[in-house]
Amino acid sequence: MHVAIAGNIGSGKTTLTTKLSKHYKWEAHYEDVENNPYLNDFYKEMQRWSFNLQVYFLNSRFRQVLSIKASGKDFIQDRTIYEDAFIFAPNLHTMGLMSTRDFDNYQQLFNLMDSFIQGPDLLIYLRASTSTLVSQIQKRGRDYENSIRLDYLTRLNERYEAWISEYAKGKLLIVDVDDINFSESEEDLGEVINKIDAEIHGLFKTA
Question: What angle, 0 to 180 degrees and rounded to 10, lies between the N-to-C axes of helices 13-24 and 186-206?
Fold first, then answer.
């Protein structure tokens, strides 16, 4: 089984991935942040490094999906390949931070990769307001995230909502992060797990 967690920067994807991996004994695939050779440069000079960064993420997540499907094991994935293609890259293009030439090239790469993969069995979307995102980004204190603009997070949120409203790759569970604190409250985490259990049982029934 392949479960994936989607959500904006600071929504709690990595935290929830870790907790669910431990609870269900699923293997976890994390977003390659620490070893990403472009991330620091991107936040300093978005227009120069946007295409490089997005191609790096696209390649990384495509390899993750292939590895997950080939393993035959139960996996949980921190962020999906679809978020790169439908949210981050188009947002950079709209903001004038990625040229049309680079964006068209990127889209062709994604369309080719997409033809070889399937969506996750269950997608968990972490919905969070911009104020919640800012608060959680500040708490974790990553230096390269200090320069993230408020309007950038807001635009991403708008794209996330548009993408989720039309999502049809598999089962979908929405968790409102503004109303729940699964990172610190065991009770809140249990509530999320109960909802996931219900979705998983539904997957088995339709299999």
Answer: 70
Reported as a single tens digit per residue, the pLDDT across 116-142 is 999 999 999 999 999 999 888 887 767
Contact in structure between 79 and 33 (CB atoms under 8 Å): no
Region of 142 (left: φ > 0; alpha: ψ -120 to 50; beta: rest) is: beta
Which residues are known to be catalytic? 78
**pLDDT tens-place string over residues 65-104:** 999 999 989 999 999 999 999 999 999 999 999 999 999 9
Dihedral angle, C-alpha 169, 172, 176, 180, nearest 10 °: -130
Q: How far is CA 84 from the centre of its chain?
A: 8
What's the CATH number where 113 sits? 3.40.50.300
Count of domains observed in the chain: 1
Determine contact, residues 97/149, Cβ cutoff 8 Å. no
Find the domain containing 148 and state its range. Answer: 2-206
